[in-house]
Specification:
mainly alpha, 2 domains, 9 helices
């Protein structure tokens, strides 16, 4: 049940961590915990939502705590990473399936990064990973009403932030609504 979902789990982990190495570690920990707690999975429920719940829990418990700690980097490492960091701006932040290439556009990624974390995760789970409101609320451990509110506010922000990009890309009318 869980193995066919690994690509989607990895993509969500990558969007959360923004680093392939950390995403792989997060997926590994997610599948380890899923294996250990498979008895808690209820057949007939959405396996993707179950795995995303585990992944998000691991992320919150592990990575957010690490982000608060200062990272020690040697000057040599910093000098080596500077050229690579300037080239990294050319690749999309969010790898996506071929059917949803708009999420990979730099303008969209930039707008998503400006969202508060709770709003960004709500948009990613519902609009990118196509979980239902109930499933996404379960993953984020919040009421469905809270999720809907976050989505409304996030979508309103994204709409305003991406209005000019949408016009240039040919989405919708050029007139104000």
């Amino acid at each position: 049940m869980a193995l066919p979902l690994m690509r989607g789990v990895y993509n969500f982990a990558l969007r959360l961590t923004r680093r392939p190495e950390d995403a792989r570690d997060l997926v590994q920990e997610t599948y380890l915990r899923a294996y250990r707690t498979f008895g808690n999975f209820r057949p007939g429920t959405n396996g993707k939502a179950w795995l995303f719940t585990i992944l998000y829990s691991v992320f919150v418990n592990r990575y957010r705590k690490q982000q608060r700690e200062p990272t020690m980097v040697s000057i040599e490492e910093l000098v080596e990473e500077l050229p690579a960091a300037s080239r990294a701006g050319d690749s999309p932040l969010f790898p996506v399936a071929a059917g949803s290439l708009a999420w990979a556009e730099p303008e969209v990624g930039s707008a998503l990064r400006q969202l508060p974390e709770n709003f960004r995760f709500a948009v990613l789970l519902v609009d990118v990973d196509e979980l239902s409101y109930e499933e996404a609320a379960s993953v984020l451990d919040c009421p469905v009403g809270t999720l809907r509110s976050r989505l409304f506010r996030a979508r309103k922000f994204l709409s305003a932030e991406l209005r000019e990009y949408a016009r240039r890309a040919g989405y919708g009318d050029s007139e104000e609504r």
